[in-house]
Automatic annotation (TrEMBL):
Entry keyword set: Cell membrane, Membrane, Transmembrane, Transmembrane helix
GO cellular component term of the entry, any: plasma membrane
Name of the protein in question: Multidrug DMT transporter permease
Residues covered by the EamA domain: 15-148, 163-298
Topological type in the membrane: Multi-pass membrane protein
Taxonomic source organism: Paenibacillus ferrarius
TM spans (from-to): 12-31, 43-63, 75-97, 103-124, 131-152, 164-181, 193-211, 217-245, 257-275, 281-298
Coiled coil: none
Length: 318
């Protein structure tokens, strides 16, 4: 295998690592959620990374003799994406699940994101529909439904969960907007600068909730396990996860990035088995096979597109 071909797999491997980290993070959040208020937890999660991120960003720019600057409209965009991520996606998910269930959250809050992303990308003429995409995306969505239907509280729609389900769909829309907006920025600016601005904006948007809901007595009541959960989520799931996610996003684009989101139910089920001692049902195994098959179809489609573009370029040069 040539070096260039090997390098082309790096972004794909990056997304796999990201969703392994985020799958483990779901188990971490369940453990930490027994003690932490979710808004306080996420506020501290974003805020704790700000000093580290800005020191790293400063060193990154200084070592390369670069000038730290960003256009005004792009600064507004990255800050808006930071607030969208922290409040519109993380906080909205927590709020929506009060009126729905985790199975619906996996399908509607995450599963519809690639569908919405591809619709936006097709309308913007950024993606051309092929049979692999038309088969792969519905197969992945159906497989996620199979995975979550194997639990005690499976996927279902009805009047009892309607309010939460609408909010979860809104989160998918916001997730698609986030991917497309971030894709514009990662092609123009170094990742350390973007991540630093994003985390800072997210932390500031959640700061009022931390100040209102937490005090010295509250923090003293958190156990060592609770603090370990926060540290893992802050460093590995947030700092490492978002940096690697956005680097891979810059290489593959928003549609292919959103398609990898279907790995989350698979990695979450595996993490639950090892860290929470949850069982894995036959539904989850079958759903996992379906997700991996769908991922192969979608990413194979990208490989074929690249090959066609290279042949066309070679023909033109001749």
């Amino acid at each position: 295998m040539s070096h260039e071909r090997l390098r082309s797999f790096y972004p794909h491997a990056g997304f796999v690592i990201v969703y392994i980290l985020w799958g483990i993070n779901l188990a971490s959040l369940k453990i930490g959620g027994r003690e932490w208020d979710s808004l306080v937890f996420n506020g501290l999660r974003f805020a704790s990374m700000i000093p580290i991120l800005w020191v790293y960003t400063y060193c990154y720019y200084r070592s390369r003799s670069l000038k730290m600057q960003i256009a005004g409209k792009d600064l507004l965009l990255i800050c808006a994406l930071g607030v969208l991520n922290a409040v519109g996606m993380e906080a909205l998910l927590q709020y929506a699940l009060q009126f729905s269930n985790s199975a619906n959250g996996a399908v509607l809050g995450r599963g519809f994101m690639p569908v919405i992303t591809v619709l936006i990308a097709v309308l913007a003429r950024q993606v051309r529909l092929t049979w692999r995409i038309c088969v792969g995306i519905p197969l992945a969505l159906f497989s996620v439904i199979v995975i979550v239907s194997g639990g005690a509280e499976g996927f279902h729609l009805g009047g009892a969960t309607l309010r939460g389900d609408i909010l979860l769909l809104m989160r998918s829309v916001m997730g698609a907007i986030y991917l497309i907006g971030m894709n514009r920025l990662v092609l123009k600016y170094p990742l350390p600068l973007l991540i630093s601005f994003e985390m800072t904006a997210g932390a500031l948007s959640l700061l009022p909730f931390v100040l209102m809901r937490a005090d010295a007595a509250y923090f003293a009541s958190i156990s060592t396990t609770g603090w370990i959960s926060l540290i893992y989520t802050s460093i590995l799931a947030t700092a490492v996860g978002f940096s690697l996610h956005n680097w891979s996003l810059s290489k593959l684009g928003p549609f292919k990035a959103s398609a990898y989101g279907y790995l989350l139910p698979v990695t979450a089920a595996i993490a639950g088995y090892f860290f929470l001692y949850e069982s894995i049902s036959i539904f989850q195994c079958l759903g996992g096979i379906g997700v991996l098959t769908a991922m192969y179809l979608v990413q194979r489609d990208r490989a074929q597109t690249i090959k066609r573009a290279q042949r066309s370029e070679q023909t033109t040069n001749l």
